[in-house]
Design a protein that fits this description.
The chain is α+β, with helices and mostly antiparallel strands. About 25% of the residues lie in helices and about 35% in strands.
């Protein structure tokens, strides 16, 4: 929140009475006359508000693993803002908004791997790191952010076990296996 101080040391922030507001622009603080925001309520604005409302509702319908994907993939913004912007852009382009595909695996035999991890990379960025202590792993990915590299790790030893450039063509990976580490994950 913006704080503006006068020469007497009094600090102002936000609205000052009914007529003034303390604000900042590009790092410069100032006090200006309050102007009631205009609401033209045009057809275009109603459409935009409807698209935004639908995007927010779609975000709320995402699972926690799908939301976590957007939180990891977002740069210089929140996962929520990334999802909303992609959703609205898709709707405006008359395309189907993309929802991350959820994937779940169990270790073969359901046995936990105490120091085991599944790591999913989008390019060089880590989008999921799942501990295999519970014998299960889950991730959610979009085609748009591929290619993905799936890495199995135990202790300090890592092995790339799969690379996918197109989730739709590849389908949900059924098996992720490292013979070197003795880890096998089966989709369920």
């Amino acid at each position: 929140m913006t704080k503006v101080s006068n020469i007497f040391g009094t600090t102002f922030s936000g609205r000052i009475g009914r007529k003034m507001i303390a604000s900042s622009w590009k790092g410069h603080e100032y006090i200006r006359t309050y102007v009631k925001p205009r609401n033209p309520n045009t057809e275009d604005q109603r459409v935009a508000r409807g698209q935004f409302a639908a995007a927010v509702e779609a975000w709320q319908d995402l699972s926690s693993v799908q939301r976590r994907f957007f939180d990891k993939i977002a740069e210089r913004m929140s996962g929520f803002n990334l999802f909303i912007s992609r959703y609205v852009r898709a709707v405006r382009d008359e395309e189907e908004p993309e929802v991350p595909t959820e994937m779940r695996w169990r270790t073969a035999g359901g046995k936990p791997v105490e120091k085991g991890e599944l790591i999913v990379l989008a390019g060089r960025r880590e989008v999921f790191r799942v501990n295999l202590k519970g014998g299960v792993a889950e991730a959610a990915l979009t085609d748009r952010d591929s290619p993905y590299t799936f890495v199995l790790k135990e202790g300090t030893v890592r092995e790339e076990v799969l690379e996918i450039s197109d989730l739709v063509k590849a389908g949900v990976p059924q098996v992720l296996e490292s013979k070197k580490l003795g880890i096998k994950l089966v989709a369920y």
